Amino acid sequence: MFTGVVTVGLLASIPAFAGGGVLDACKAELKQFACNATTEEQAHQCLERHEQHAKKDDGFSHACYEAHEAYEKRMRKMEKGEQH
């Protein structure tokens, strides 16, 4: 039960900081790629399709790149926490 409460708590906290993440940092990229994202997950998925690994910061502005990487790190942490 405790694990369920922690997981629910983590999921509930995502929208609280979501606005300061990929959606805000990547506005120009989301517009350039015609992404109609309304959530961090949608924005991340759209950006994933346009990553250019051979370019610096995967072809994104540095702020967008950092937000994109931070989102991926948060998701890996959440997935790792759910496996225990």
What does this structure look like?
The protein has helices spanning about 1-20, 20-25, 25-30, 40-50, 60-84. With about 80 residues, it is an all-alpha fold. The longest helix has 22 residues, at about 60-84. The two termini are about 15 Å apart.
Top keywords for this entry?
single chain; 84 residues; mainly alpha; 5 helices; globular
Question: What's the structural blueprint in terms of helices and strands?
Answer:
Blueprint: H1 2-18, H2 22-25, H3 27-32, H4 40-50, H5 62-83
- Main beta sheet: strand number and arrangement? none
User: Whole-Å distance between the termini?
Assistant: 13 Å
Radius of gyration: 14 Å
Number of strands: 0
Order of helices and strands: HHHHH
Beta-sheet strand percentage? under 5%
> Which structural class is indicated by helix and strand composition?
mainly alpha
Arithmetic mean pLDDT: 81
Principal-axes geometry comes out as: globular
Sequence stretches where pLDDT stays below 50 over 5 or more residues? 1-19
Given the structure, what is the number of helices? Answer: 5
Q: Into which percent range does the helicity of residues fall?
A: over 70%
Describe, in short, the structure shown.
The chain is mainly α and 84 residues long.
